[in-house]
């Protein structure tokens, strides 16, 4: 999307020259060759990159042009693919300032250069926005290219007036990244969320899904690897957006499910439950279903990328996919730890395998794979220990009835249980002195298990969409949150229910005032007040 179809002929003509000029065009060509060589010959790629970066920096003293923006965007991409994220963020700042300097963000300026160049400059600005939003969201840093003064449209309506939109991966990508930006601003920056606010954001996700999901699913069957790769990255970003809006509710449910001893060791508030009881009221609550929706989105994302990597893709340097895949591996790991279903272990292993696939050329993916594996092992160990303790309590009851165990062994087990209880009580008391109990967390309820064991495979979901049949979630009743259903995020449904809730629009002040007036808003960032906070900042 940085270039049109004249790029390859131009590079061939440039390569055939006896002498190549040291200008910004040469810098662009060197950087294109560098990125293309990264997966084949790293030494050659480094040589091209150093030459192209030197020419790009040298050209900054002259007149800025589209080539200046392209050269520094390519520098950013190369460094991202090489796991040099801080350098990438630095060079992208130059690209963003150069784009503003030549007016790429104003479509009326772009239109002065004729129809062809107008389209090219508009698309270049969209590429700037996508890369900017990815960097800011993945690194937790402020964006460098904001939208308030932008007049470039991110939509391309069909000429027939049907309300549809032309299939364009760039437009789909910038739209979903803009939605994710809104989620971060409305939820994570304010550190407050409610079911009412979540419904407003989910409506925008449903609208995006209705426009783009069927076409993106069909694109996964294409033989063109570039189309498949682009569609896969856009779909992964959509699933990541769903995880992002529902992840606070997952953390809330996890906090309620953990027993007192485990939560005390993690610095969480303690309650009265054991972490094993089940409550039908909790299973029907909106918070519990949103927690399950977060796990479902992570499972779908893992299935999507696992299917993509199984086809033997040649490119193993994909920062967007690696970032969102790691986020999904953490979600399924936490879901496994919280008892949302042992079937999540399969998804956890698939995410590790996919990360290891990219780890051959991506140091970050290798580190993420180790973290995901460690979380899975810890979760399984905890579940096995919890099950063993439960069986031990049951065996004690059976012994009291029939004397199944010798009296001496029974006394030893009782002493061990008493010691464990005393340790748990001492930990609970030490935390209760420094933390005041919370009414929200004090209610020990075990929400319903995840729907991961009944999720359709990615291939089944795509076939249902192509055949025009009903999606896997369309049989559920629609409702704002009284009878909440995961279909609110339209994971695999082409026709989704629309609720009458206004989308989030307007400036930051409007967002803030609207969120403050939401009835029943809860401070879930962290969940508790005082020093017993669950700090979610590291999960942003």
TrEMBL record:
The record's annotation in SMART domains points to: Fungal_trans
Instruction: Give a GO biological-process term.
Output: positive regulation of transcription from RNA polymerase II promoter by galactose
Keywords in alphabetical order = Nucleus, Transcription, Transcription regulation
Q: Where is the composition biased (Low complexity)?
A: 275-284, 408-431
Name a GO CC annotation attached to this entry.
nucleus
Q: Where is this region: Disordered?
A: 265-284, 406-508
Q: Specify the protein name.
A: Xylanolytic transcriptional activator regulatory domain-containing protein
Which InterPro entries does the protein's record reference? Answer: Fungal_SecMet_Regulators, XnlR_reg_dom
The Xylanolytic transcriptional activator regulatory domain covers: 88-161
Q: Which organism is it from?
A: Xylaria flabelliformis
Q: Which domain of life is it from?
A: Eukaryota
């Amino acid at each position: 999307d940085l270039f049109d179809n004249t790029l390859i002929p131009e590079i061939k003509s440039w390569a055939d020259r006896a002498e190549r000029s040291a200008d910004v065009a040469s810098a662009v060509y060197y950087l294109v060759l560098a990125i293309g060589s990264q997966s084949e010959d790293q030494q050659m790629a480094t040589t091209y990159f150093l030459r192209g970066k030197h020419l790009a920096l040298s050209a900054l003293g002259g007149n800025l042009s589209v080539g200046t923006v392209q050269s520094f965007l390519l520098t950013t991409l190369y460094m991202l693919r090489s796991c040099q994220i801080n350098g990438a963020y630095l060079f992208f700042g130059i690209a963003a300032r150069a784009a503003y300097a030549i007016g790429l963000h104003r479509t009326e300026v772009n239109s002065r250069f004729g129809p062809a160049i107008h389209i090219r400059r508009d698309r270049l600005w969209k590429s700037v926005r996508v890369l900017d939003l990815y960097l800011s969201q993945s690194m937790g840093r402020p964006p460098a290219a904001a939208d308030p003064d932008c007049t470039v449209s991110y939509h391309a309506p069909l000429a027939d007036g049907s309300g549809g939109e032309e299939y364009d991966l760039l437009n789909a990508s910038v739209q979903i990244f803009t939605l994710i930006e809104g989620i971060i601003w409305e939820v994570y920056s304010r550190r407050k969320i409610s079911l009412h606010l979540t419904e407003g954001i989910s409506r925008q996700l449903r609208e995006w899904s209705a426009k783009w999901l069927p076409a993106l699913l069909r694109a996964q069957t294409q033989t063109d690897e570039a189309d498949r790769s682009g569609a896969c990255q856009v779909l992964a970003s959509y699933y990541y957006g769903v995880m992002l809006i529902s992840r606070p509710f997952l953390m809330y449910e996890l906090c309620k499910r953990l027993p007192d001893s485990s939560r005390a060791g993690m610095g969480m508030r303690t309650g009265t439950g054991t972490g094993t009881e089940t409550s039908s009221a909790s299973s029907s609550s909106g918070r519990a279903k949103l927690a399950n929706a977060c796990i479902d989105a992570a499972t779908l994302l893992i299935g999507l990328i696992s299917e993509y990597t199984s086809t033997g893709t040649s490119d193993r340097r994909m920062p967007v996919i690696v970032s969102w895949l790691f986020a999904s591996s953490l979600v399924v790991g936490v879901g496994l730890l919280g008892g949302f279903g042992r079937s999540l272990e399969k998804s956890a292993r698939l995410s590790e395998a996919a990360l290891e696939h990219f780890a051959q050329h991506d140091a970050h993916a290798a580190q993420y794979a180790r973290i995901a594996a460690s979380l899975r092992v810890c979760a399984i160990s905890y579940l096995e220990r919890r099950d063993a303790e439960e069986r031990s309590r049951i065996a004690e009851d059976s012994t009291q009835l029939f004397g199944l165990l010798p009296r001496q062994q029974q006394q030893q087990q009782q002493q061990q249980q008493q010691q464990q209880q005393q340790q748990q009580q001492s930990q609970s008391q030490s935390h209760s002195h420094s933390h005041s109990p919370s009414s929200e967390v004090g209610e020990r309820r075990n929400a319903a298990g995840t729907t991961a064991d009944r999720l359709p495979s990615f291939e089944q979901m795509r076939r249902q969409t192509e055949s025009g049949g009903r999606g896997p979630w369309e049989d559920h009743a629609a409702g704002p949150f009284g009878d909440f259903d995961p279909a609110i995020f339209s994971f695999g449904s082409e026709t989704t229910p629309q609720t009458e809730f206004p989308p989030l629009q307007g400036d930051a002040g409007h967002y803030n005032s609207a969120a403050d007036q939401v009835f029943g808003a809860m401070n879930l960032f962290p969940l508790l007040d005082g020093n017993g906070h669950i700090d979610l900042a590291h999960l942003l």
